[in-house]
Write a structure and sequence with these properties.
2 domains, Lactate_DH/Glyco_Ohase_4_C, binds ligand NAX, alpha/beta, 43% helix, six-stranded parallel sheet
Length: 327
């Protein structure tokens, strides 16, 4: 029998994981491959996590061969092949950005070191917890023995949001949209690029043919969708974030569809003038478990300015966590 894939998930008693764990366990990630879940929480949340595990047990999912929980990353991450780092410290009222970065820095330095010490050699690490790109950079820098390209951050939710908004605008099913790209940071500065996106076989920006809509409605709507969900639901997006986390990891492991790409935040190799040393969102394809940044796309003047602005924010965050001694 096949050895189970060991999957670590952090923040396992939280909102996103209440959806994510059941998607993974039911086969949305790896189909019917056997899996073992390794769930990490902080000590006060372990009781709640036990309740979530009771519910997982009650689903009697055939592919789940074992579930372990704990509050010590060096135990929970032991031998893991995939790690989804969802748990993070949310920004609270009155919190400065530097407070947020240091609170999360403490989490992601420790988890980076633990992965470095005990994860399987083939580990892939996906960071969903915010600020996701910079948290991923902190984890990567604290895991010197793991290749840098095994650390990704999530911009797939933004990617999916952009597809959905565009499809609604031009009145086509989402399956008619391809080659969407989110560039930059998972933040309000992110840039969803309609100049390389296709609607059928036509450039989306030409189909829309309305630069005012692109700048004044589309981009802000995608970038501020998280806030709109909070406004409507009273809670931040969870099921859609879980879905995006599953899709990113599934595509990273099993490959992207032919003739399309997805948005992944990956360590920059200098492509498209994005400086090395930050984790930024790019159009990527995946074959045999290795992603490649799509090369040769045209970047017009408008796109250039938007990408540069988001990248500048990532460079600022990198500088801030460097100053705090986190990387
Ligand atoms: P919740 O607050 O519901 O859950 C987070 C859980 O993480 C809590 O149970 C907490 O105890 C746990 N946790 C905190 N520190 C931990 C640590 N050191 N080790 C293990 N677990 C720890 O938040 P939820 O709504 O699930 O969101 C989780 C994270 O995803 C947040 O940082 C949120 O900002 C981020 N998001 C990222 C998105 C993205 O597209 N990249 C979109 C959705 C979401 O906003």
């Amino acid at each position: 029998t096949e050895a189970p894939v060991k999957i670590a998930i952090t923040g396992a008693a939280g909102q996103i994981c209440y959806s994510l764990l059941f998607r993974i366990a039911s086969g949305s990630l790896l189909g019917d491959r056997p899996i073992e879940l390794r769930l990490l929480e902080i000590t006060p949340a372990l009781k709640a996590l036990e309740g979530v595990v009771m519910e997982l047990d009650d689903c009697a999912f055939p592919n789940v061969v074992n579930i372990e929980i704990g509050d010590d990353p060096s135990k929970v991450f032991d031998g893991v092949n995939l790690a989804m780092l969802v748990g993070a410290m949310p920004r609270k009222a009155g919190m400065e950005r530097s407070d947020l970065l240091s609170a999360n820095g403490a989490i992601f330095t420790g988890q980076g070191r633990a992965l470095n010490d005990v994860a399987a050699d083939d580990v892939k690490v996906l960071i969903t917890g915010n600020p996701a790109n910079t948290n991923a950079l902190i984890a990567l820098k604290n895991a010197p023995d793991i290749p840098a390209n095994r650390f990704n951050a999530l911009t797939r939710l933004d990617h999916n949001r952009a597809i959905s908004q565009l499809a609604a605008k031009v009145g086509v099913p989402v399956t008619d949209i391809s080659h969407m790209t989110i560039w930059g940071n998972h933040s309000a500065t992110q840039y969803p690029d309609l100049f390389n996106t296709l609607v059928g076989d036509r450039v989306a920006a030409d189909v829309v043919n309305d630069q005012a809509w692109i700048e004044g409605e589309f981009i802000p709507k995608v970038a501020k969708r998280g806030a709109a969900i909070i406004e409507a639901r009273g809670l931040s997006s969870a099921a859609s974030a879980a879905n995006a986390t599953v899709e990113h990891m599934r595509d990273w492991v099993l490959g992207t569809p032919a003739n399309d790409w997805v948005s992944m935040s990956v360590p920059s190799d200098g492509s498209y003038g994005v400086p090395e040393g930050i984790i930024s969102s790019f159009p990527c394809t995946v074959t045999d478990g290795e992603y490649t940044i799509v090369q040769g796309l045209e970047i017009n003047e408008f796109s250039r300015a938007r990408i540069d602005a988001s990248v500048a924010e990532l460079v600022d965050e990198r500088d801030a966590v460097t100053e705090l001694g986190l990387i």
